[in-house]
Amino acid sequence: MHACLLQPRMTPQEKLKIRMQKALNRQSKADKKAAQAKVTQQENKRAEREGELRAMARKIRMKERERREKERDEWERQYGRQSHSPSPSKYGRDHSSSRRRSRSRSRSPYYRY
Q1: Residues ≥6 apart with Cβ < 8 Å to 10
Q2: Basic and acidic residues compositional bias: what residue ranges (predicted)?
Q3: How do residues 35-70 score in pLDDT, each as one tens digit?
Q4: Within a 13 Å sphere around the CA of 96, how many CA atoms are in the beta-carbon half?
Q5: What angle do CA 91, 84, 70 make, to 5 degrees?
Q6: How far apart are the C-alpha atoms of 110 and 113, rounded to whole Å?
Q7: pLDDT value at position 16?
Q8: Distance CA 73, CA 66 (A)
C-alpha cells in the first residue's frame, strides 16, 4: 500500500499501453523463436538432402566402377588373352597410316566446293 502512495495513480490509458507493450514483447519473442525454429528445420532438411545426394553419388560411382571393371574383364576375356593372334606388320601399319594422312589432306577446307 505504501507503493501506491508514493506513485501517482495510472490512468486507464497508461495501464492499457503497458499491457499492450507486454503483449507485443511476448508476441515478438514468440515470433523470433518460431523464425529460429524454421531456420533450424531448413538447415536440418538441407543437411539431410546433402547426405542423401552424397550417398546417391557414391552409389552411382560404385556402379560405374563395377560396370567398367566388368567391361574390362569381358574385353580381356575376348581380346586380351589371345596371344596367338598375329600382329600387323610394320610395313602394313606405316602404309595404312600414310594412306590415312593423304586422305585427310585432300579433305582440307581449301579444296571444298
Answers
A1: 18
A2: 43-55, 63-79
A3: 999 999 999 999 999 999 999 999 999 999 999 999
A4: 5
A5: 105
A6: 9
A7: 96
A8: 10
